[in-house]
Design goal:
This protein is of the alpha+beta class. The longest helix is centred in the N-terminal third of the chain and has 33 residues, at about 145-175. It starts with a helix and ends in a 6-residue tail after the last strand.
Length: about 650
Amino acid sequence: MPKKKQSKKAQEQKHVSPLNHSVDDAQDDDKAISRRDNRTKKTNKTSSSGKVHKDNKHALSETKLAEEAALTAMLFGGGGGVGGASSGAWADDDDDDDQINDASAWDDKYGNQNSEDDDSDKEEKAASGDLFAIDRSGEDIDEDDDDADERSDDEHQSDTDSDGDDDEFEQEVNKGSMQGAAWQDPESDSDSDDSDDDDSDSEERIMKTKKQKGVSLVDGPNRLKKLRRYRDETDPLSLSEYELRLRERFMNTTSVAANTGWADVNQLQQKQEEPKTKRKRGGYGSSSEDDESGDEDYNVATDILESNASLFQHSSSGMQLPPTILDVVRTRDGNLSDPNNSVLSAVQFHPGSDEENPLLMTAGMDKMLRFFRIDGEENPKIHGIHFPTLPITCASFLGDSGSVVMSGRRPFFYVYDAISGNIQKIQSIIGRKERSLEKFTVSPSGDVIAFVGNDGYIILVDGKSRQWIGDLKMNGSVRAITFSEDGEFIMGSGSDGDVYKWNVRSRRCVERFHNEDGTITSALAATSNFLAVGSESGVVNLYTEKYSKTSLYGGSDSGVGLNATERNPLKSIMNLTTSADSLKFSADGQILALSTRRETNGLKLLHVPTQTVFSNWPTSKTPLKYVWSTDFSPGSKYFAVGNDHGKCLLYRLKHYWDE
């Protein structure tokens, strides 16, 4: 059956006219063009997600298709076209109708029903002489050549519009990449201004909420708790009150240990307002103040040379301390607001604090380090630090700085900075294997720390780097060490009863002499004029320091090979019946406090200029208990005594308060 159809179709194709051939060719071209358009539409749909170069290709393809459509209309259109000429030349109207009818019947019988209708319509339009055009939507439309030109112009305009869209897209991409850099869109200025206004408004709201809520001293950092006036204070503070508390805290802590007078604006303004007159002779830039200071120094030197009075240091009031009778008044205990729970092993006033309101440091076996502001009435506590692993046996300020060195019967020691609040633990001294660093002394400037070591060694440590810088060797074991008042020399003594003197810079022993008592030395103290040596027998010998300016390169490398010389003491004080455990000179050197820990009320005060002990104080009723530590304030206006009950007894020396 299919063979018959094919033969019949072949027979019918033999009788098809040339016009039918042209129509069939046009029909095939239309189908090919429609399939191509469909493919381009599908590709356009998939590539329309932002790929601009594919859209451009599609626009070009549409332009080509439009040109092909116009060419097809010219070739196969009716009227004055080629189809009309050919139909009039070699075929008549009747034959055309018959051939068209035969072709349409063939298509109705064997073709696709959906496409056959469209093809038959196209054949009829072509045979009747109508203009033939192609529409990409799949339908046939009638248009003129001018309309095709207008369509191509519209497509060209759409291409230019797409190019403009591409440029805008590139500008947006560049704008996003340039945000945060130097590029800025002028139109975004208003937006940025609005954002700045929003930020300022948010900051104002935050400040308002802070003002309303205040500053909590309990919920914040632990340091804020020190600003409380009492322990149960939980209410938040206003900003003004918070600032006031911080200023009070600064005045009670940092300003005591550090001199901040240079930051006083009033003093700076006064210095700037003072007239600066130049000297007519002398160095350039020197003022009249230098002349006045030079005249004062000249007058002081003249008074010393013209007078035969004693050259001992005078008190702050300008008068010598009277002997035998000491005017002393007890005041409120220095640590009454927070006493120690055990033995008060160390008390010391800050060397650079105010004479009338000095800073007092206390430390003891309860592992607590405390600071107090001494005013003679309240003596408020500033703050305290707890060291869980160190029962403190010795503590001292590092010169005029705010740092404190603490040690105990441990191979390590601590350095606490009272200004910054930092705590530094030195695990051990490199180069030394010591089981205990419980006893040490600090140079007046705080540059050197001298520890009592084993086997007759004195260990020197740098006060800033906390590193070992050298050793000093003596015969026997070391029991007591002290620095000279200028810090150039260090004295040590121990079990052999000899006193050694080294130069700190050269590490050379410049002097060695035998103490007259002959027993084990237990304490040492020195000023610029005197050296006090205490022994376990209770005898305290007072020597003059006329040999203190020994040559820098004199002596030997150590005190072992240096022969001991004999020196006679100015005075031997025998008022103590047990070991002299502590010796302390006053700030002006006129009083020497000697005490012992082995008997109750074991304290005596010596008038140094006359080498006599004050008879009126202390008495048998003075509640000193067992004295463990003593110290004088910078102006010698206060005298502090630490005992075994953890109390710091405070006494006012009225002689130094009189003008």
